[in-house]
Structure formats: structure tokens, C-alpha cells
Amino acid sequence: MIRHMFFGKVKEGVPDAQIEELVTRWRGLAGTVASIRAITAGRNAHATDHRFSVALVADFDDWAGWKAYNDHPLHDEIRRELSAKIIDPDEKASIQLEL
Whose CA is closest to 54, among 90, 99, 93, 28? Predict the structure, then answer.
């Protein structure tokens, strides 16, 4: 199994509605991208650790499933229309783990 984890810091001044839209659209990928086995997305709820504002964790059966997600048009649309506009490009990280 492959676990994909993404962490990002939202730029200053981004309205809450845009952040919620991003999280909602991330969660909606599970119903659209067939290779996603599980997905969790949300805002950082920790009171003092503010390095990252949002996170996404998604599980796939294999690397082909992760690639299908990574290349999926809806994932790309979310990346272009929301992520790229509201997440600081210098304050993001992702990792893929083989479980």
C-alpha cells in the first residue's frame, strides 16, 4: 500500500471559505478517483503548532493507483484552481510511504 501525505501553509489573508472549499474538494476526490482507498483532509487543529495549515492523507493499493490519482484531471484542477493560489509554495511538503 502507498500512503500519500501532503502538508501546506495557507497564505496570509486567504478567506476561510477558500480554505474550506479546498478541504471539501480534497475529500471529494474519494468519490471520483477510483484508486483512492481512503482519504482524510482537514485544517490544522493544533492550538500552537502553525507551521502547516492544511493536510491531506490518501491511501492507494500500489504505485499505479497513486500515479492515477496524481495525474487525474480533477486532482490537477484542484491543484491549479485552489492549492496553487492559496498555499505558500515555499511552505508545503509531501511524502509517499510504502506500507
Answer: 93
